[in-house]
## 1
Amino acid sequence: MSGKKKGPRQIRVAIFASGAGSNAEKIITSSRSGVALIVCNKPGAGVLSIAAKAGIPSLLIEKERFFNGDHYLPELKEQQIDFIVLAGFLWKLPPALIKAYPGRIINIHPALLPKFGGKGMYGHHVHEAVISAGETESGISIHYVDELYDHGKIIFQATCRVDKTDTPDSLAKKIHELEHRHYPRVIAELLQK
Ligand code: GRF
């Protein structure tokens, strides 16, 4: 025995992502969050290289088992995952997974919910809809995940201007900046609670 007192175990986070993974990268490199696993449904997605570079194990999941099998709960349990962060994950979570992590799954949405959310509202579709609606403001919403798309209780929102000259691409850039600035911090604060 070393005689050293053991502190409380660090909360182990799994990030679920389907794409480039720029948010995942920011969360991983913000030293305050213990990211233990990356879960991805897209072979070849950028987030898998980010995980490999950071030395974090990744789990490539397949549709049938995720929705109709054991939802990969055994792997999450084996990795002792306490908290799930969705960062550009494009599949709706099965109810059994949500039940297994009550109040411990969050998502980031690239608009000001409840507007511009729901099925089909992801990526450039969101920014196109915001611009076509003539909105002068957009932003990000970090929220708990429930069984409906983009519906759970909102934890944090931040806004940016939509200028007349904005295109879906330029707006996406502004939104990504907001996401990178706030998501790692909001996660760290939630994990401290
Ligand atoms: C983000 O804009 C996020 O709001 C949305 O998907 C995008 C993921 O981007 N849910 P990245 O893969 O983190 O770069």
Note: The mean pLDDT is 94.
## 2
Amino acid sequence: MFLNDNLKLFSGSGNAELTRAVCKYLEIPLGGADIERFADGEKVIRIEDDVRGRDCFVLQSTCRPVDEHLVELLIYLDCLRRASAKRITAVVPYFGYARQDRKDEGRVPITAKLVANLITAAGADRVLAIDLHAAQVQGFFDIPVDHLSGELVLSRYFRDKKIGNLTIVSPDVGNMKIASRYADRLSGDLAIVHKKRVSGSEAIAQEIIGDVKGRNIVMCDDIIATAGTICSAAKLVKDRGAEKIYIGATHGVFAGQALERLREAPIDEIVVTDTIPLTHEARDRGDIKVLTVSSMLGEAIKRIHRNESVSNLFTEY
Ligand code: R5P
């Protein structure tokens, strides 16, 4: 065990498997806590370990059921604060509500900011997150945020595949910076799809900037939700003469018609990470590759605990 009893990691029910894997990396036992429900449906959490004066981390992905996992995280934070933890870090591999990060029409909320406020008010001293949809969401928190990217594990996977004739495609303009980093890491060319979002679940890929004819494609995104973005972009690049199409996304939400769309799209492989547990339906497909972010998260937690640089992870990984 390379860490002492001063570090505690607790798990919300949003991603217990990932928390166990992180504990394994850190060689620490999972923090003891009991999550129950009162008869009226309210949740109660009892921390079983002594956390007074300890450096505590609670890992919770606020994936479906989003509101339930979010409230559970808030209760956890409150619980740790009232139990006199010295420092509390909310480890949120998938941060639900992040995509509502601006008012793009009248009379709508900015839920990314609201959730950031809630997490802070509940007692978090810092946040460790992965691909918050837009880097500026970090600024919604007035506490330190360590922001990791699934790009580190995904690009390593694609690099090991040694794909020749490679072009990295960003499925929309918003993802261009990430795609350009992938292109650097994988020594590929870069192309960008211009997308028009028609509704929350419909996106139309309209044009491509860059050459995809005869090229193998790695298309990278932060999230596959309804898969409208990725499938529409895959069809367009295929129509323009692309060879194999690989998809790499950090968060595999697979909501609504996602699996149906992916089945019909000209895609050779889909790779996501375990920031969100795969839904049963997605698991049953048997062909969605899941890479773990556990060692990256574990390493970040270790460094936060030891007050060492987390940003160095990006160059070392
Ligand atoms: C868009 O800005 C994001 O990077 C994703 O491309 C998008 O949120 C994915 O959503 P969907 O799978 O529903 O198209």
Note: The radius of gyration is 20 Å.
